[in-house]
Design goal:
heterotrimer, A mainly alpha (251), B mainly alpha (213), C alpha/beta (244), B: 213 residues, 8 helices, C: 244 residues, 3-stranded antiparallel sheet, 9 helices, binds adenosine-5'-triphosphate, binds magnesium ion, MetI-like (chain B), transport (chain B), transmembrane helix (chain B), transmembrane (chain B), amino-acid transport (chain B)
Chain lengths: 251, 213, 244
Amino acid sequence: MFNDLSWSVVLDDPGRSFLLHGAWVSLQLAVLAIIGSTVVGTLVALGRVSTAPALAPLRWLLSAYVEFFRNVPLLVQLVFWSFGMFSLDLVRAAAAPLNPVYSNQFLAGLLGLTIYTSAYVAEALRSGIQSVPRGQLEAARAGGLGYWAAMRAVVLPQAFALAFPAIGNQYISATKNTSVVMAIGVTDVVFQAQQIESATFAAFEAYTAALVIFVVICLAESALLALVVRGMLTRVRPGVRTAAPTPALES
Amino acid sequence: MGAITDNLPFMLAGLWETAKLAVLAIVLSAVLGVLVGAMRSARSRLVRWPAIGYIQLIRSAPLIVFILYCYFVLSDLGFDLTPFWAGVVALGVFTSAYLAEIVHAGIASVPRGQWEAARACGLSQAITMRDVVLPQALRRMAPALVSEFIKLIKDTSLVSIIGVFEFFHRVEVTNSRLLTEPFAVLGFAAVCYFVLNYGLSRFARRLELRLDA
Amino acid sequence: MPIIEFTGVRKSYGDLAVLNGIDLSVTEGEVVVLLGPSGSGKSTLLRCINALEDVSGGTIVVNGRDPHDRATNLNELRSGVGFVFQHFNLYPHMTVAQNIMLAPVRVKKLPKDAARRRAMALLERVGIPEKADSLPTQLSGGQQQRVAIARALAMDPAIMLFDEPTSALDPEMIQEVLEVMVDLAGSGMTMVVVTHEMGFARKVADRVVFMDAGRVVESAAPDDFFASPSTERAQEFLRRVTHI
Ligand SMILES: Nc1ncnc2c1ncn2[C@@H]1O[C@H](COP(=O)(O)OP(=O)(O)OP(=O)(O)O)[C@@H](O)[C@H]1O
Ligand SMILES: [Mg+2]
C-alpha cells in the first residue's frame, strides 16, 4: 500500500477540516480537564493531609476516591458517565444550559477525564506537601498564621514547586487520554481520523495524521511545562536539578 | 441484581480473555522493555539512539491511536493479525516503552562501583549487565513495574474498540442489550477491575515488604 | 506576676512520658536558659508554650491565656510569642523581607509598605539590611538565623523562645547570632532559651533551669548553678559539657 499513499485524504478538505475540528475539540478537553483536575486534585490533597481528628471520615473517603478511580480503567469511567449519569433526566436538565456549546458526550467525557486525572494530581501533590519540611508549617503557625493561611502562603507554593514535575506528567497523560473519549462518541481527533479511515480506507494516512497532531500538542506542552518547572524549582530548591518532563511521559 | 446474575456467565467469560490478553502483553512488554532499557543504557550511541527513538516515539502516542494503528496499518502491511493478537502487540509494544524507561532508571541507580568491580574481575559488558547490574536494578524497579502492569490491565479495556471480545466489551454488550441497568452493569465492571488491580497492588506491596525484610 | 506559668504539666507520646509534671514560672523581662541532656524534654517544653505541642495534663498560662484551652485564640496567642528554630525554617520561596512581612501582613493586616518599613528596621537591628531582597538560600547560616530572629520579632512579641538557635551553625557564625540575642536580652525581652552555649547562659541568663527525664531538677541563678550544682545529675551534665 505504501506505493499509493494518498495524503490528500488528510491534507485536503474535507479530511483536513475534520481533523482540525477534532484537534480543537481535543485541545479544549485537555485544557479544561487540566484546569479542573488541578483544582479538584488540590482540594483532595489538602483534605488528605489534614490532621484534625474530626476529619478522619473525610480522609477515609478521599483515599477511597483516589484508590478507586486510579484502579478502574478510564474507558469504564467514561462509559459510566456518559451512558450512566448522562442518561438521567436530572443530569441532562442540569447540563442543558451548556448544550449550545458542548454536547452531552463532551461534558461526560470532560467530567470523567477530570475526575480520573484529579486522583493522580492529588497523589502527586500530596507527596509534594509531605516533602515540605514540617518546620515550614510550624514556623508559619508560630508566627500566628492559622492552619489554612499557613498552608496557602507557605506550604502549598513549595509543594507545588516540588510536585510540579510529577503533576506535569499527569497533564501530559491527561492530554493523551483525551483520545479515549472517542469511544463515547466525542468528535475528537481520533474520532475524526476513524471517520476518514472508514470513508477512504486510508488507515495509514488517517491515523498517522492523528498521531502527528498528538505528538505536536504533547511536545509543545512538555516544552511549556519544562519552562514552568525550571522557574519554580530555582526558587524553592536552588541546589536541586530535577528532571523536567520530557516529550511524552506517562500514558 | 438480576441484571448482573443473569448475565454473569456471559460477562465473566470475558475475564478469561482479558487475563490472556494481559498475561501475553505483559510477557511481550517485559521482554522488549528489558531489551530496550538495556540498550538505552548502553555506552555506544549506535545502540542507545535507536532505543531513545523507540521510547520517545511510542510515549508520544496515545494508546488508542497506537491500537488502531497496529490493527489497521499492520494488516495493510500484510501482517494479518486477528483483533486479539493486534491487541496483544499494541499493548505489549506500547507498555515496553514505559518499562524501558523504568529499566534504564533502575540501571542508572546501580552504583558505578558495581560495574567496575565486575569488569575488573574480567566479566564482559553483557554478562555484567545480565548477572550483576540487572538483578540489583530489578529490585529497585519493582514498585514502578507493578504500577505499569496495573496500567496495562486497565488498558486492556481499550482493545474493545477493535472488537476484541474481552471483559469490558462483553459488559458493554450486556449494557446495551439491557438498556435499563447502566448503573448496575457498569458498577459491576468497575468493581471487578478495582478488586483485581487494587488486590494486585496490595499483594505486590506485601511481597516487597517481605523482600526488604 | 509571671508571664509564663507551668503547673504540673505532663506530656506523653503514647507510652513515652516526655514531661513528668513541670512546674515553672517566668516573670516579665526574665531571661531563662533551659539546660539538660538530650531527650530530657527541653524542646517539648518550649513548644508547649506556644501550643506547637498540646499537653496531656496540668495547666499552662502564657500572657494571661491558656494555650490548651479550646476558647483561646491560638493564632492571637502565638502572635505574642516569637519562636526561633534550630534549623531557621525560613520560607525558601520568599525573599528575606517577605519572610519577615508575612505574619504582620496576614495576621495583623498591616499594610504592605508599613510592614516593609518594619522589616527593614528589624533587619537593621540584626545587622543585615542589605539582604532584604535576597533569597534565604543565598545567605550564610548565621545570617539566616538572624533573619529568623527578625521574623520572630516582627509581631512585637512579649516573649521570645529559642530552641538551640546556634546548634546548626558553623562555629565562626555562632557569635553573630549570640550578639543579637544578648542585645535583645538587654532590651528587656522575656526570653526562654534552650542552648548549649554555657558562656551565654553564664553572662546573660537571670536563671538557669536544669531538666532531666521530663522534670525540672534544678532552678538557680547562673553563678550558683555553675559554681555548685546541687544535684548529682546536673553535676554530671556540667562535667560532660565542659570537658568536650
Ligand atoms: N513527635 C514525637 N513522637 C514521639 N516521641 C517524641 C516526639 N517528639 C519528641 N519525642 C521524644 O520526646 C523526648 C523528648 O524530646 P525533646 O525533643 O523535647 O528533647 P530535647 O531535650 O529537646 O532533646 P535534644 O537536646 O536532643 O533536642 C525524646 O525522647 C524524644 O524522642
Ligand atoms: Mg531539642
